[in-house]
Write a structure and sequence with these properties.
Length: about 170
């Protein structure tokens, strides 16, 4: 009986060294090692680059609407440029966010910019006036129900105005 008690007592003592007292010298995996207060920071000097999209805003927003999707909604925007040849249109977040993340600001509003690249200066397209019927600039952004649950409204800024859509 004393051998069993002694064995259980030693086992219990070993386990307490591994538990709450993780910094104790009884812990076989911690060994009482202390972290140095001078841990070097791996971030580059001046912080990480926050590259902003340098494309100009679409000159005129014609409309914005929601289209239903099985897993969320599709935000569709139509815009118009004064000349033919606008390309590379996109909806980008107003503040830089990592990856394709769509996180609203603290007030629950997701702020986007409607951007497109104009035709190069001196190109034939830059000299032709655009037709509002055939030369509209259209972009779409799928937003899942999970992302929509955190968003109260979406503000899309163009060069001429800002459009606000509520969920």
């Amino acid at each position: 009986m004393t051998r069993l008690t002694l064995t259980l007592l030693i086992g219990a003592l070993a386990l307490t060294g591994c538990g709450r007292f993780g910094d104790s010298r009884w812990n076989p995996f911690g060994g009482g090692a202390r972290l140095s207060a001078n841990v070097p920071d791996i971030a580059p000097e001046g912080g990480y680059d926050q590259t902003a999209d340098l494309r100009p805003s679409v000159p005129q927003i014609l409309g914005a609407e929601w289209q239903p999707l099985p897993e969320g909604r599709l935000l569709v925007l139509r815009g118009f440029g004064p000349v033919k040849g606008y390309h590379s249109a996109a909806l980008v977040t107003a503040r830089a966010q990592p990856g394709d993340r769509l996180a609203p600001d603290a007030d629950g509003v997701l702020r986007l910019r409607f951007v497109a690249s104009p035709p190069p200066e001196g190109s034939p397209a830059a000299a032709l006036p655009a037709n509002p019927v055939t030369d509209t600039i259209t972009v779409a952004l799928p937003i899942s129900f999970v992302q929509l649950s955190r968003i109260a409204a979406i503000e899309i800024a163009g060069a001429d105005r800002t459009v606000t859509l509520r969920r």
